[in-house]
Amino acid sequence: MGNISFGINMEYVRHADKTFEWGVAKAAALGYEYVEPMVHWGRELLSEAGYFHSVSMLDDPMRIKEACAKEGIKLSGLSAHTPLCKPEISVEYLKQAIRFAAECGAPVVNTDEGPKPDWTSEEEDHVLMRYTLGEAAKVAEKRGILIGIEPHQQYSKHPDGLDRIYNLVDSKAIGINFDTGNSFLCGHDPYEWLERVNNRMVHLHAKDISVEQSDSERGKVTGTPVGCACGEGVIDWARIIEICSRCPNDIVVSVECGTIDEAERSIAHLKGLMVTA
């Protein structure tokens, strides 16, 4: 069985108005072993000015590698969400993210099908996604990078839909990045769904959902950007960890929360569960 480690998605410093490097150092200080950076195309004002954590793929990938090495922290993957249904955006973006991941040392590139075009049918969308994933998988296979498909949008909001996307391309590079919060908000049982994909999982987004958000949004949305602190919402983390412990792959449980304080409380809760397990 695989090993379980804890990481943090860099969205936790979204509202801190700090650089990527600052966020990496803070994650290490909080006790996280891994970080999951977000990458983007081109240039973006806030990140260039040092007020946002996202890293441009026009930068040297060694920027990420060196920042992590300085703080003694590792990479669980890259957050590289792009609309797979829109190949004019996603094909080159995803291929570049895979090459960037290979050079900076991130083993997984996470994505989802994204918002669909407003003029295509469901069948056409799946042809478009097959093309995108097929092109990306060829690049990923040569570099030993995994593509984690996340439940997050219109087709992946239920287990059968996620499986259909996963099965579009037969490639050892394609796996599942399971999201506990998105699966719950979609209206499904996250534990049953996790069991279903456990042997194909390559990464996990640890997203807890507050009771308030659950009451107002469950069954009405396909996902949410970040959740509350792990242990303060509706997700049973002991159960999640137990299921992950039976995954054949090593899994980084990458926390997705919205603030530094939530990140601190999340790691304390998750590590406490490992001590008592």
Q: If you had to describe this structure to a student in words, what would you say it looks like?
A:
The protein is α/β, with parallel strands linked by helices and 277 residues long. It has a single domain (4-276), classed as TIM Barrel. It is 43% helix and 17% strand. The strands form 2 sheets. Strands 5-2-1-11-10-9-8-7-6 form a 9-stranded parallel beta sheet. A two-stranded parallel ribbon has the order 3-4. Strand 8 (146-149), helix 6 and strand 9 form a beta-alpha-beta unit. Helix 4 (87-104) runs parallel beside helix 5. The longest helix has 22 residues, at 122-143. It is globular, with a radius of gyration of 17 Å. The mean pLDDT is 97.
Features:
alpha/beta, TIM Barrel, 11 helices, 43% helix
How far do the termini sit from each other?
Answer: 16 Å
The helix content is 40-55%
| CATH topology term | TIM Barrel
Give the overall average pLDDT.
97
What's the shape?
A: globular
- Tell me how many strands there are: 11
Sequence of secondary-structure elements: EHEEHEHEEHEHEHEHHEHHEH
Structural class by SSE content: alpha/beta
Percent strand equals: 15-25%
Q: For the largest beta sheet, what order do the strands appear in spatially?
A: 5-2-1-11-10-9-8-7-6
Number of domains: 1
Poorly predicted residue ranges? none
- Our count of helices gives 11
CATH class: Alpha Beta
Radius of gyration: 17 Å
Biggest sheet record:
9 strands, parallel
CATH superfamily: Divalent-metal-dependent TIM barrel enzymes
| CATH architectural name | Alpha-Beta Barrel
